[in-house]
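Deliverable D5.2: sample structural annotation.
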Amino acid sequence: MKLTQGTFKDCNVYGITFNNKYSGIKTILTKDNYTSKFLNINNDKISQISTILSNNKSFYNRVNNCTCINCDVINGYFINSNLIALNDITNYITDGYFSGCTFSGYIINGGKFENCVIKNNNIWNNGQWSNIGRSDFTTTWSGGTWNDGVFSGSWFNGTFNNGNFVAPGIWYDGIANGGTFSGATWKYGLARNVNFYSCILEHGVFNSDTLYSCHFLGGTYNDCIIIESTLSGGSFNNCIFNNCIITGDVEIRGGDLKNTTIYDGNYFTINGTELLVYGGKFYSGNYNNSTFNNCDIYNGNYINITANSIYIYNGFFNASLIKFSTIYNANFTTCIAVQVWWEYGIFTDGEMYCSEWFDGYWNDSLFSTDCYDINYSNTIIYSTTTTTTSII
């Protein structure tokens, strides 16, 4: 039995199909948006007069406070009702509006759902979902639009516009345009203007997101803010980092790094402050008040840094202390160099101790065979001979 227009209230309904009043109607609409979906079979707009929904007239089935058993829904307006399929998930919902309803055993292919309960014995293929602050969706999400609510399952496709995506939820693919992700795992997809907390991020593209205490295994991040996180992989463009740990072969281009510990990675044109570096390659950028160990510097500007056992291929260094390092080419001004191997570059207004000089430009600095201990403030712990020279 098919119904195209009727009203049911406080009753039980068995084995019927709630059908469209008009052929081609795909979504219940209001007078504010009727032009978007009301199409006839020839894709021409059905007239405003015949399709607009008002307070006193409707053109679809209305069901209020009912129990619908083994019913199929092609369209309809359902309020505070239970839809129960007893035939091992063979009944379906194609479209409609549902508010305060509970579903069991249905294949859901479309519709708009507000403050409903979708149990895990349903199959969700598509639709629009909104449950403000509630976790009433317990099955797998395969597609559609999520506008609000709490999600904790497996997400395979669709659009997430707002709400909370929480552990142990897994995001396999799709688009997130906002909302909060907490303790979840992200596999692939696109995120924009999302807040992430304690998530594992494996792949995907992230634009203008804020990420706290996350673990980055891969992905591309553009204009993001990253705080107290661990980076083991990924490509980062114009991001801001604070109190992070970088352990993997990441690539960072542009942006700001502060209070971060670095063990590996490639760095281009960033601003680095108060860094503790134990490895990596630095190709360009501006760095100050930082410590560099066992890394390679190819270019950039370095002010007030302390370096130990590094390789310098080029760059500008000012008011810095460089120890046990190899310099192939660089420009040092008011720096102190201790036990370095200097092949070529410019050394100006500084001090060099216990080092090997092969070529370059020396401008009014102190060159000495004395050995200098960085653990004692400007204290020479043993001395042989000292010479002051100016070489041009």
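Annotation notes: Residues 48-51 form the longest helix (4 residues). Confidence is low (pLDDT under 50) at residues 24-59, 374-392.
The annotation will be released with the project's public dataset once the embargo ends.
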